[in-house]
Write a structure and sequence with these properties.
303 residues; 10 helices; 8 strands; eight-stranded mixed beta sheet; 24% strand
Length: 303
Amino acid sequence: MRARWVVMQSEYGLRDTGRVRGEDAMPGGETRVMKDGVIWGLRIARLTMMMMHVCLCFCARSVDPFTKKDWYDIKAPSMFSVRNIGKTLVSRTAGTKIASDGLKGRIFEVSLADLNNDEDQSFRKMKLKCEDVQGKNVLTNFAGMDFTTDKIRSLVRKWFSLIECFVDVKTTDGYTLRVFCIGFTKRRVDMAKRTCYAQSAQIRKIRAKMVEIITRECTTCDLKELVLKFIPEVIGKEIEKSCSGIYPLQNVYIRKVKILKAPKFDLTKLMEVHGDYSGEEVGTKMERPAEEAAPAAEAAEEA
């Protein structure tokens, strides 16, 4: 506050002791001293301007910005068990600025544990993108998936080989995805060796098998069916089973999914994913007790 007062004093010339700048400055840098009455008149005028500036700033800051915003319900697709995942707010429609335009394209990152009521899946983060707004409902669709950092770091261990790959695939409904896979070698039951590193040739074969399985599983279904494969880790188990003849694997996961390209927005397909919210329960009307209803009726008649 002290620093702001000093800045305002210098801004309005209140720290100027008898010397005048600007138009009153003489050529050559010299200044002329004005009479005491004129100087004090200038100071009072500048002080008045400063106080008006303070009042304007105070009035502008006293308005609560949340009074100009509305809350909207975020709806998850039908592939998840919990449909209502939270709320978001946006500025109300004003002039040419429409509220729904400010909501479309927003990305919401939600834990899969909250979407499916399963704490064992808390290490997965789902990204949902706002595609359309209907009333107070924000309709979202799958926009990506990722692992939490602590889960990735808990999987990486010494004495084991880490094998990674990624592949670009296209679903039957036109989505282009980049799918990342991660896996680790596994110690055999009768193995006496301390380390279990895979050879370079074995790693190349395992990586090729990963790419083959991911491409086969992703290109034969649409986005909704593919998300239902990601959740129970169907593709990771298939990779473990297929690569057991090359080298035993463990902790094989689809760790990340990115949407590179999406088809043109189709409201019909979005409603197939979400369903109809017209029959959603929004509360029931409660009848007031007789002793409370009577005073309210009398007040209404008097008004």
